[in-house]
Every structure is written in C-alpha cells, then in structure tokens.
Design a protein that fits this description.
This protein is an alpha/beta fold. The protein is 29% helix and 27% strand. A 6-stranded mixed β-sheet has the order 1-2-3-4-6-11, covered by helices on one side.
Length: 301
C-alpha cells in the first residue's frame, strides 16, 4: 500500500469544519517542486475563478479535497482546471468529498483516496445565478466534462446514475465495477498537528439559510447529512426552484440555540403568488464526517 509522507505535516490543516465558501490555499514546496493545494468547505459559484487564480503559476501540485459539495458547475470547472494542469487529487484520511467535490476529484491525474476517506457521488443538478438550468443542458454539461476526462463507459454510468437521494459511495469494493481508476493510499500523519477547530452549530444553520436566501440549493444541500441529501425538502432541485423563484427572497432573522441543543432560526419571504411566510424553524444538527450538518428541520413554511 503506498505511503505519502510528503502530505503528512499539512493534511490536518484541512480538518477544520468550514461552513462558508471553500477555503482554498496553496503551500509551495521548493524542495521537490510539488505544491500542495487545499480545498476545504462548501463549493460556491465563484470558487472556480478563485481556484484558477490560486493555481495559475503552479506547474505540479496535489489537490487535497475535503468538501461536502456545493455548486456542481463550479466543481466541474475546477475539475477541468485540475485536468488541464495535470494535478493529482486526493481525499485525505477521514475526509469527506461528496457531490460537486467528487466531480473535482475525477479531474486528478492520478486520483488518490485514503482508505478511511469518504467519496460520494450524487445526482447532479446544475444551477446558475440561483436558477436551475434545463435538465438536458445540465446533463450535457456533465456528460461533456466526463468525456473530456476520457472516462470509460462504465465509469460514466457509475457517476451519472448516482441516486437523487443519498450517495453512491466509491470504495475498494466497488472500484472494479465502477471502472474508475484510483489508488488507495495510507497517509502517515505521525508528525501532523492534532488540534481541530471548534464546531459552530449556529454558523452551520446561518450559512444554510444564507444559501437558501440566494437560491443556491446545491450549496445548501452540502450542509445536509449525506443520507438525507436529495430527499424531499432537502433536494437541491426543490430548494433552488422554490427559494430561487420567490418574489421576495428569504430574509434571515435571529439564529440562536435552545438548551436542548436545537437551533431556532427566524426568517420571512414572499412567494410569487403573494403568500407571505414569517416563521421560526427548529433545526436539528449532528456531527457527521467530523462536520456539523443538518439532520432535520421543522417549520410551518
């Protein structure tokens, strides 16, 4: 089993639980000429441009991915840049790379994944400026990207047939079936720092509703536990269509924590038919993949 000692002293810089736009950073290694690029957090619509600017001058790099997902369109564009630059991709130990992040990972040359990592594919919905693209257009964009990567037919089917609810997890057991070329690695972290950033439940909930206020269902869904992602009200398509189509976008009010751990959040909005909603929702969160994610929401509207 391959061992990557080069990454050992920096991988845990990705162990923080960012809930805002992805944190993209570059660490140059002048000794062997291979730079480390880290992407941690929810992928937002503008992150593809941010990534391109960060890596413009790099010749060789390993892109370390730890993201619950987000904007599929930005993920595809980042994946294209990764492939054009010839960068490797890796999901670190205990890392989560789902939905849009998994599309980015596919761009790597080579693709690496830790044995204890979590890499999940999910039905792709393409949104732009808070609006869903026609399903045919979205499918064409994903198909064109996978063709650019020269994936075999079975790999394309594995990725594009991912369920709209839950995740299609990639692992050693289904690698042969999926036909996705990847190397499973054991990353040594003996010398890495062990500190982990504090989890902030209020920030998680606030960020979720801020994404809804912008009509960004994909980014909002990235903050939902993977097993419930895509189901009912947590479906990216439904969230983008509903909150992106409001006459008056969602206005976020107070966000605070009850003694029992629930997060209460007040908001209001107006639908196109004139219906006015003003309510306080009760949000249940739990730790999943070393992040705080949303498990359940009770709201009148």
């Amino acid at each position: 089993m391959p061992k990557l000692t080069y990454l050992s002293c920096v991988l845990l810089t990705l162990s923080g639980t960012h809930v805002d736009a992805a944190d993209i950073f570059v660490q140059r290694d002048t000794q062997n000429g291979i730079s480390l690029v880290g992407i941690d957090g929810v992928i937002e619509a503008s992150d593809d441009r941010k990534f391109s600017n960060k890596v413009f001058e790099l010749d060789k790099a390993v892109v370390v991915l730890n993201s619950p997902g987000g904007s599929a369109l930005a993920g595809i564009e980042i994946g294209k840049t990764i492939r054009l630059k010839g960068f490797a991709t890796i999901v670190p130990e205990k890392g989560l790379c789902a939905s849009a992040c998994a599309l980015m990972w596919l761009g790597g040359m080579p693709r690496l994944i830790s044995d204890n990592a979590n890499l999940g594919f999910h039905a792709t919905y393409i949104e732009k400026d808070g609006k869903l693209l026609e399903s045919g257009v979205g499918n064409a964009l994903v198909g064109r990207y996978l063709t650019l990567l020269n994936l075999p037919e079975r790999a394309v089917i594995f990725v594009t047939n991912a369920p709209p609810s839950g995740m299609n997890w990639f692992n050693r057991l289904n690698q042969s079936h999926s036909a996705i070329e990847a190397t499973f690695v054991n990353i040594q972290k003996e010398n890495a720092p062990t500190a982990r950033k504090a989890l902030d439940p209020i920030a998680t909930v606030r960020t979720f509703y801020e994404y809804l206020s912008q009509g960004e269902g994909g980014a909002a869904a990235a903050l939902v536990i993977p097993e419930k992602r895509g189901i009912g009200a947590f479906n990216e398509k439904n969230m983008t269509a509903y909150f992106g189509g409001l006459k008056r976008r969602l206005q976020l009010g107070a966000v605070y924590r009850e003694n029992d751990g629930r997060i209460l959040v007040s908001y209001d909005y107006t639908r196109q038919d004139g219906f006015y909603c003003s309510t306080t929702a009760s949000v249940t969160i739990r730790e999943s993949f070393e992040r705080l994610m949303i498990e359940k929401i009770l709201a009148k509207c």
